[in-house]
């Protein structure tokens, strides 16, 4: 395979599994972009982003109802994370947004990355749980300084972060946990007049997918080190028309025979301020395959989207024209992808091989 070769997978819509509950104040502005996981009871759960009036987000818990091997709906079980820490709230904003959860067997824990919408804007944070219900915050993700980048990654807003489910070999040869993330290079969003700044060696200023690593040994010494990321590497930037504005990661990478399958979103249109609910964009789902031994290396990617906003639920909502994949789960031997629909509802699609 080459980076431009087809990825042998397709997505086929199955239906809508979650819509805002009438009268539920926590869901007044939508349910979307869920994380997922299996609880100790063996049941499949979604952890949806619940958006209240004023764009205040919480993370909920909902058991997935499966009929004849197909996820068809959910049963709500409350809120498991909300912006009740000072760094998750600003003077006029607050949120614990867009969770991604990965079961990491080496830790025996679900690891959540989420966006804390705090005083300076969106910032990635990490939390862990053994049951999906009680979450222990490890705090904001911190990026170790790397002199060859000539830049402190802690300066930038960062979103679309997700851990790999298995350990990998880091660039320095150590056994490590790996995490994908997407730095946002416009410092003008934090301090007016600073403009766009990129690390040394990066010529494309568009937002792209990066990878960082956490030594397993350091996490065994102190679990809090899971929020201290290093050995940062560029992975993939916009390459095809459906990704013209930016790309970002989606669900936890899925191990496949060729390497790691990473579903991602590609964006076209016009981006307003990072603090706005966008109205002039189009989000579609594509895929990358990363090398099994070196997940910073792309070995294949989709030149066309696997799923683009075409249905009424995907084209009309709080942010129209959005397909935003955030979770993959296996049900009765088949993989299903859960995705945000126009920042308002949650859909599900079947992921299948095409060869």
TrEMBL record:
<dbReference type="GO" id="GO:0016798">
    <property type="term" value="F:hydrolase activity, acting on glycosyl bonds"/>
</dbReference>
<keyword id="KW-0328">Glycosyltransferase</keyword>
<keyword id="KW-0378">Hydrolase</keyword>
<keyword id="KW-0326">Glycosidase</keyword>
<dbReference type="Pfam" id="PF04041">
    <property type="entry name" value="Glyco_hydro_130"/>
</dbReference>
<dbReference type="InterPro" id="IPR023296">
    <property type="entry name" value="Glyco_hydro_beta-prop_sf"/>
</dbReference>
<dbReference type="InterPro" id="IPR007184">
    <property type="entry name" value="Mannoside_phosphorylase"/>
</dbReference>
<comment type="similarity">
    <text>Belongs to the glycosyl hydrolase 130 family.</text>
</comment>
<protein>
    <submittedName>
        <fullName>Glycosidase</fullName>
    </submittedName>
</protein>
<keyword id="KW-0808">Transferase</keyword>
């Amino acid at each position: 395979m080459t980076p431009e070769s087809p990825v042998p997978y397709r997505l086929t819509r199955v239906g809508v599994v979650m819509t805002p509950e009438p009268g539920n104040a926590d869901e007044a502005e939508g349910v979307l972009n869920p994380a997922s996981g299996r609880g100790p009871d063996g049941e499949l759960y979604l952890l949806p982003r619940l958006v209240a009036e004023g764009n205040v987000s919480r993370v909920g818990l909902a058991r997935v109802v499966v009929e004849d091997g197909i996820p068809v709906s959910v049963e709500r079980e409350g809120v498991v994370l909300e912006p009740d820490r000072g760094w998750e709230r600003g003077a006029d904003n607050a949120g614990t947004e867009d969770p991604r959860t990965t079961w990491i067997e080496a830790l025996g824990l679900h690891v959540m990355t989420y966006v804390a919408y705090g005083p300076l804007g969106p910032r990635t944070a990490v939390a862990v749980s053994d049951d999906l219900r009680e979450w222990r915050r490890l705090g904001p993700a911190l990026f170790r300084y790397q002199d060859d980048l000539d830049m402190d990654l802690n300066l930038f807003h960062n979103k679309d972060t997700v851990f790999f489910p298995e350990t990998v070999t880091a660039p320095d040869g150590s056994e490590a946990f790996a995490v994908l993330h997407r730095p946002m290079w416009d410092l003008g969003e934090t301090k007016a007049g600073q403009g766009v700044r990129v690390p040394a060696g990066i010529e494309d200023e568009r937002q792209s997918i990066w990878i960082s690593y956490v030594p397993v040994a350091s996490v065994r010494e102190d679990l809090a080190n899971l929020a201290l990321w290093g050995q940062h590497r560029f992975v993939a930037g916009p390459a095809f028309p459906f990704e013209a504005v930016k790309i970002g990661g989606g669900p936890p990478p899925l191990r496949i025979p060729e390497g790691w399958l990473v579903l991602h979103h590609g964006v076209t249109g016009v981006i307003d301020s990072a603090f706005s609910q966008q109205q002039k964009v189009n989000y579609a789902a594509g895929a990358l395959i990363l090398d099994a031994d070196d997940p910073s290396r792309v070995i294949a990617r989709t030149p066309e989207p696997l799923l683009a906003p075409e249905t009424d639920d995907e084209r009309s909502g709080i942010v129209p024209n959005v397909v935003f994949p955030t979770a993959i789960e296996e049900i009765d031997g088949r993989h299903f992808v859960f995705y945000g629909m126009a920042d308002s509802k949650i859909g599900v699609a079947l992921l299948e091989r095409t060869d």
